[in-house]
Amino acid sequence: MFKNRIFLVLCIIFSSILLRAQPRQDTLRLTLPEAEKMFLDSNFQLLAGRYNIDASKAMIIQARLWPNPNFSISHGLYSGTLNKFFPTGTNDETTVNLSQLIQLAGKRNKQVKLAQAGAQLTEFQFFDLMRTLKYTLRTDFFHIYYLEQSAGIYNEEIRALQQIVNAFNEQAGKGYISEKEVIRIRAQLYTFQSEYSDLIGQINDLQSELRLVLQAKPGIYLNPVTDSSLLDKLDPGQYPLSTLVDSAYHNRTDLQMARANTNINRLNYNYQKALAVPDLTLSLGYDEAGSFLTNYYGIGASIDLPFFNRNQGNIRSARAQIASSQAVEKSTQATVEENVSAALQKAFAQQKLYRTVDPKFYGDFSRLLHEVVVNYQKRNISILDFLDFYDSYKQNTLQLNSIQFNRVSAFEDINYYTGTNFFN
């Protein structure tokens, strides 16, 4: 029994040292609009996405370019008759040829349309990345805020219990307090410190993720600042389901990407059919003395004969890709509708739960907490009543913070699934 008590006391001391030994960090207070501006200005993933858009638009310029003409010239290297290198005059031979590839069946225009559709898809990918990162930013922002509220509760309870433990230490050996009671209080203190340490670890993980989204320095501690009165006014009934679904149809970038892929596959099918048509090559030629006439000038044309290869495999593959992308588009549209509907139902459920909480609850409980500590120190209530109230206070306040975060998170889900900031 004595060894167990010694171990418990050492754990409490060690835990306190760990909590107090956390490295000091510079704190940056941020409102949500400030965080979003910082995100848009600094995030390297968005910067890379913007460069990808520029690169894809450059491919449109490339697709518009005409094939280069081909020029060739040749001259006699050695004359056996004259036994001379590079003969000139009446004994030399020079040929010149100029040719130009003419793309038929509108291949060039189809290439341009494919490049434009590819650039549009890259833009949709960029905005989908922005939508996902912004959702991460906003949910982490509110999650950290409410976890910090919970951490404040732990701090308050740990400080009060630590005062009681210190008072017990001063009275040790005087017989005023039973040893069993001292152990119970210390055990409760250690439990709170352990839970607080886990909570701080959770906050630190979210801080790390939020710093990456904002590209903040590793030593910065981000302190979210919110307006509770504005959050309290959020109402899921403000917009009907039809409005939310319609917005999702127009603004969900993953749905736009699915539509863009279907369009790209249709354009690719048209392009593959055009490739079945061979291109024409026109040429101009000059032959100084190698023809039946001296200084011969000629014009010519050449074209492949599509007897064997008419691009049949690529055309069939492109047709199958259209059917595949259409199925993906329909699946994505069904997912969008279900996401929005489920998010709205969740928001109504969280709103109903939130409205059942008495606004005076937290203030009343905080006032009672101080009175319970005072009454316990005066021995007006038993240790069981004291510890039961402390545990109830902790559980209820943690639950209240959880309810508030889940409610705000439900509204953020609606924003994410509709692609529109309906609730800010």
Write a brief structural summary.
The protein has 424 residues and is α+β, with helices and mostly antiparallel strands.
Walkthrough of the structure:
- There is one protein chain.
- This protein is of the alpha+beta class and 424 residues long.
- It has one domain: Up-down Bundle (Outer membrane efflux proteins (OEP)).
- The protein is 68% helix and 11% strand.
- The strands form 3 sheets. A 4-stranded antiparallel sheet has the order 2-5-7-8, with no helix packed on it. Strands 1-6 form a two-stranded parallel ribbon. Strands 3-4 form a two-stranded antiparallel ribbon.
- Helix 3 packs antiparallel against helix 4 (107-170) and helix 8 packs antiparallel against helix 9 (312-355).
- It is elongated and about 130 Å long.
- The two termini are 56 Å apart.
- The relative contact order is 0.13.
Q: Would you report the number of β strands? A: 8
Percent in strands = 5-15%
| Coarse structural class | alpha+beta
Sheet with the most strands?
A: 4 strands, antiparallel
Q: Superfamily at the CATH H level?
A: Outer membrane efflux proteins (OEP)
The CATH topology is Outer membrane efflux proteins (OEP)
Strand order of the largest sheet: 2-5-7-8
Q: What's the CATH C level? A: Mainly Alpha
Rounded to an integer in angstroms, the radius of gyration calculated over CA atoms is: 38 Å
Helical fraction: 55-70%
**Uncertain parts:** 1-24
Q: Could you report the average pLDDT, rounded to the nearest whole number?
A: 85
- Determine the number of helices (DSSP H or I, runs of at least 4 residues): 11
